[in-house]
Amino acid sequence: MSCCKEPRSSWVFPTAMLSLYGFFANCRPAEPFLTPYLVGPYKNISEEQVTNYLFPIWTYSYLALLLPVFLLTDLLRYKVVIVAQGLFLVNNYILLCFAQGLTAMTVLQVNFAIVTSTEVAYFSYIYSIISVRLYQRATGYLRSAMLTGYTFGSFLGQVLVSVAGVSYFCVNAITLGIVSVAFVVSFCLPTPHRGMFFRGETEVPTTQEHHSAAEENTEGAEEESTQVAGGGWCSWNTIAHAGHLLWRSFLQSYSSKQLVYWSLWWALATAGYFQIFNYVQLMWNHIEPSGSSSVYNGGVEAIATLLGAGAAFTIGHVKVTWEVWGEVALGMFSAVAAAAVFLIGLTSSIWASYAGYIIFKASYMLLITITMFQIAENLSMQCYALTFGINNFTAVLLQTTVTAIVVDEHVLGMDIVSQFVIYGTYYAAISLLFMIRGTYTACQHYCRLRLDRESREDTKTEAISSYKF
């Protein structure tokens, strides 16, 4: 393909191709209707099997794959992993369309775990191929492409089901065609010549050094070989050097107590979000079985994503001293999320449950945007990529623990309503923790301001007395 030979000096081409890939890979009209499809006549799997057996397999597989995929992504320089993600995404919908039986759906969950574990390549690819000064703009485009694709896919799915009367099987077939486009687009991505850790750098720069170096480096500097002194890219020296960089990045990423608290919220809240996102369709199917009523899951997902994206965009223009009020905000909006989760699980009205999910998802997207911005603002992109991986790994580890205890049929195997009571309590505990911590931080800040003011007044009084004397 001629498009694959686009020169790397242009940041527009790789950003456009990756944004296009992100749009088509996340434009999945069938996803909001997965549970009705599995428990309906197409797959004929019981709700209990989906809840307590199938979905936990995805969680366990995701945890097992996340760390090795994170390291392989950097070692293989991103493009290979993105192409693999596209391939497994296509395979995912082939299985959904044509495979039958519980065993095939078990394989499907492992396959989808590979798809989700390779998402790290999508977010980190662009940082290895463009100039540092363009990171913020490129990240905005990629995030927008993902959200636009997901919103459009959810809306399209709802229109196909509710307006056109298309069957769930045909919606999955249409989704297969869309993700196949993403797979083709992935081949047009330029191959990076370096990774973030397997590239032979000797230092992890601080934020200031990182940006200063970015201004001085030319595009030609990005063409450096990934070899380090003493061996090729797969040699022991290179691997040891990458391990050294990973350790230095880890120390820098969690050197600040404030960054640790932001990362703690990220991990705790994301674990809860993953769990609710996975099981909310089962909750809706419990309130109003899809076989006997209309399903509006796609419309709800589209509205929730739009509101969340709008809230995230708005908060970027609000002037707040996040160092003082950030933890209070995390606590307050986590309380809103907890109330929304209780509403989802305890109401008998499907519309109230839909409203609770919209509030919950919008709150989470607002807070995760603030959290990512605060962490990224204080770290180099190399450290941020590692922090992103560690926080997500911790979130999946927590989610796996909750799944193993609460959901798995071999332990408690709770019904779906009891699960959502647990999840609401979980978010209430997060809210209480950060409200206490946030109140302490705010009080400490204002006490410090008062002491500084009193100290300045005392100094001023002493100066006046000395002058008079």
Largest sheet: none
- Percent range for helical residues? over 70%
Shape: globular
Radius of gyration: 24 Å
- How many angstroms separate the termini? 87 Å
Structural class: mainly alpha
SSE ordering = HHHHHHHHHHHHHHHH
Q: How are the SSEs placed, and which strands pair?
A:
Elements: H1 12-26, H2 34-39, H3 47-75, H4 79-98, H5 102-117, H6 119-125, H7 135-163, H8 168-186, H9 207-216, H10 236-253, H11 257-287, H12 297-315, H13 322-346, H14 350-377, H15 381-407, H16 416-468
Helix pairs in contact: 1-7, 1-8, 3-5, 3-15, 4-5, 4-6, 4-8, 7-12, 10-15, 11-13, 11-14, 11-15, 11-16, 12-14, 13-14, 13-16
Structure write-up:
There is one protein chain. The chain has 469 residues and is an all-alpha fold. Helix content is 75%, strand content 0%. The protein is built from 16 helices and no strands. The protein has helices at 12-26, 34-39, 47-75, 79-98, 102-117, 119-125, 135-163, 168-186, 207-216, 236-253, 257-287, 297-315, 322-346, 350-377, 381-407, 416-468. The chain is globular, with a radius of gyration of 24 Å. Residues 1-9 and 200-233 have low confidence and may be disordered.
Outline of the structure:
The chain has helices spanning 12-26, 34-39, 47-75, 79-98, 102-117, 119-125, 135-163, 168-186, 207-216, 236-253, 257-287, 297-315, 322-346, 350-377, 381-407, 416-468. By secondary structure, it is an all-alpha fold.
Name its key features.
single chain, 469 residues, mainly alpha, disordered N terminus
